[in-house]
């Protein structure tokens, strides 16, 4: 027995703004029906006594420990920059002179 009809697939396609051919509607109806049948079989599994879990593996902190170490000097950081100004990276201005929200 089919769980999803071709008309329902056409309606879903319209909601998703998909233009599907008749062959695509028939194909997707069969595919979605197979998916729904599989989900139904999973829902019928006996899970009595099984604790719900989001992840079957134990949570483990996989980050490295923090260690203080020397970073780049200002000169080293700016050495590869195409342009600098007053000890900073120089970049093209992309906003006007006005500050957002400032009184005019």
From TrEMBL:
UniProt superkingdom: Bacteria
EC number: 6.3.5.-
One GO BP: glutaminyl-tRNAGln biosynthesis via transamidation
Coiled-coil stretches noted in the UniProt entry, renumbered to this chain: none
Segments crossing the lipid bilayer: none
Enzyme class at the top of the EC tree: ligase
Keyword Transferase in record: yes
Keyword Protein biosynthesis appears in the UniProt entry: yes
Keywords of the record: ATP-binding, Ligase, Nucleotide-binding, Protein biosynthesis, Transferase
Family: Belongs to the GatC family.
Protein name: Aspartyl/glutamyl-tRNA(Asn/Gln) amidotransferase subunit C
Organism: Mycolicibacillus trivialis
């Amino acid at each position: 027995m089919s769980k999803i009809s071709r008309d329902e697939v056409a309606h879903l396609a319209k909601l998703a703004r998909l233009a599907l051919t008749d062959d695509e509607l028939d194909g997707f109806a069969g595919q979605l029906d197979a998916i729904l049948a599989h989900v139904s079989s999973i829902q019928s599994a006996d899970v009595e006594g099984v604790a719900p879990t989001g992840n079957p593996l134990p949570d483990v902190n996989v980050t490295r420990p923090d260690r203080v170490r020397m970073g780049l000097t200002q000169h080293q950081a700016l050495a590869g920059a195409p342009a600098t100004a007053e000890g900073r990276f120089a970049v093209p201005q992309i906003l006007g002179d006005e500050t957002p929200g400032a009184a005019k």
